[in-house]
User: Which sequence fits this backbone?
């Protein structure tokens, strides 16, 4: 399979710019995106700032759409719930995979139609089931008692989530299909859930599998497709029921660092589909649920450098954000790269540790990155932060969450404003203003 990594010899050296969105270029020593200078964006919107490239998001959406015009592609909203981005995707025919009442609200306000909504969750509340029913979403059953609860909530159409007992090759916190997973139902229980859902009078459209996230190869996902088909065959034999939908989940990785190799999204999805067609010969629609692979590489974060200092053996550059806007290094040991957006063509003067501004020593965004000698006021650009950064951001240490902009053709649209101090205090009844 072709990969998007460039790991060849000296003439084909990995280039940092390849980790950025498609329209990123260095011109006159400065990083530009979508025809805009990074320095202009930072001045206009402040820092930290998450900058999204419209063209990259659309290119990824089109890549998935090309795999099969009859497939439904639903955006994994958890990667970055945002109305503007979801409207953009909805206009291209994509739907949304949501896992809470809150994520459903983003999808509804973005105008995603009910027949393009998939509602997940390992512990859905009755309120969530009612909201999913009112929206007309596919509800993915994740427990044996959920068919009856879904029926009582007015749900019409369901999928059943299968846990195929596969260890995805990724961080253990984001594997979801191993035998001990809290998600889904092992094969025998999945068949029982289909039986109960049919008995409850639900329209059981099909089966679902999602084995994990930040997947850097297809092997385990292909095995999961085969296991899903095994469950479908058991259902056909034991219940006389056949799925008309196979939801193959999401999970494809993006490159955060030059060392990462990642399958091409279109080829990854096509391989899964081919595997499905090879093993299941009745007509069936495929659903894909990409999150990170749609928006991850499309976004990067701009920080302003403040303190630069040397300790015994380590040169630190401190940024005006950190674990509150990107907790992934702490949660998953994720490795990022960076460049100085305002001096992007200067040679490296050594390795620097990028520290956040939070009150703990573990608040390190990048353990070691080669940079030109950083100075107070420089702009640090960290690529591939479009997924699961703002989505998991917090107000730790009373830090307001950053803004996000969508850039295209020399224009930037604010798609999420920076939080204010009033936002921080707004949930406190004793706040006197
Ligand atoms: N479908 C289901 C059922 C999921 O649970 C997820 C992600 C997706 C689709 C989308 O997966 P993606 O294509 O984005 O990998 N916070 C973690 C990732 C958690 C993923 C949760 N589920 C991280 O920062 O790596």
Assistant:
């Amino acid at each position: 399979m072709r990969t998007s990594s460039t790991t060849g010899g000296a003439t084909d050296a990995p280039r940092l710019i390849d980790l950025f969105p498609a329209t990123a270029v260095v011109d006159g020593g400065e990083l530009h995106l979508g025809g805009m200078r990074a320095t202009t964006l930072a001045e206009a919107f402040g820092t930290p700032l998450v900058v999204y490239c419209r063209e990259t998001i659309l290119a990824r959406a089109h890549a998935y759409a090309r795999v099969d015009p009859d497939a439904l592609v639903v955006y994994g909203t958890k990667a970055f719930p945002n109305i503007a981005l979801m409207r953009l995707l909805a206009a291209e025919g994509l739907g949304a995979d949501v896992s809470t009442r809150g994520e459903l609200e983003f999808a509804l306000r973005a105008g995603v139609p009910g027949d393009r909504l998939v509602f997940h969750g390992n512990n859905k509340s009755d309120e969530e089931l009612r909201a999913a029913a009112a929206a007309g979403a596919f509800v993915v059953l994740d427990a044996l008692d959920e068919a009856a609860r879904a029926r009582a909530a007015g749900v019409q159409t369901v999928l059943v989530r299968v846990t195929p007992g596969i260890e995805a090759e990724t961080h253990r916190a984001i594997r979801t299909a191993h035998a001990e997973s809290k998600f889904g139902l092992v094969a025998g229980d999945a068949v029982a859930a289909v039986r109960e859902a049919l008995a409850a009078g639900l329209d059981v459209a099909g089966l679902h599998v999602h084995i994990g996230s930040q997947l850097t190869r297809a092997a385990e996902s292909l095995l999961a497709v085969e296991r899903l088909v095994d469950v479908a065959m058991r259902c056909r034999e034991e219940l006389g029921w056949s799925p008309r939908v196979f939801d193959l989940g999401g999970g494809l990785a993006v490159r955060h660092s030059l060392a990462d190799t990642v399958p091409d999204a279109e080829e990854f999805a096509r391989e899964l589909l081919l595997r499905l067609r090879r093993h299941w010969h009745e007509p069936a629609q495929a659903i894909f649920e990409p999150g990170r692979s749609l928006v991850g590489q499309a976004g990067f974060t701009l920080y302003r450098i403040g303190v630069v200092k040397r300790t015994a053996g380590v040169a630190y550059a401190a940024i005006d954000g950190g674990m509150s806007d990107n907790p992934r290094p702490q949660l998953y040991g994720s490795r990022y790269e960076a460049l100085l957006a305002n001096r992007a063509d200067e040679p490296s003067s050594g390795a620097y540790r990028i520290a956040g501004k939070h009150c703990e020593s573990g608040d390190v965004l990048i353990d070691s990155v080669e940079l030109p000698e950083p100075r107070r006021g420089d702009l640090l650009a960290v690529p591939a932060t479009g997924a699961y950064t703002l989505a998991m951001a917090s107000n730790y240490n009373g830090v307001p969450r950053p803004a996000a902009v969508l850039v295209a053709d020399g224009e930037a649209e604010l798609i999420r404003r920076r939080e204010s101090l009033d936002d921080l205090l707004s949930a406190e009844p004793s706040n006197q203003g």
Observations:
- DSSP finds twelve helices and 20 strands in the chain.
- The chain has two domains: 13-46+298-425, 54-294.
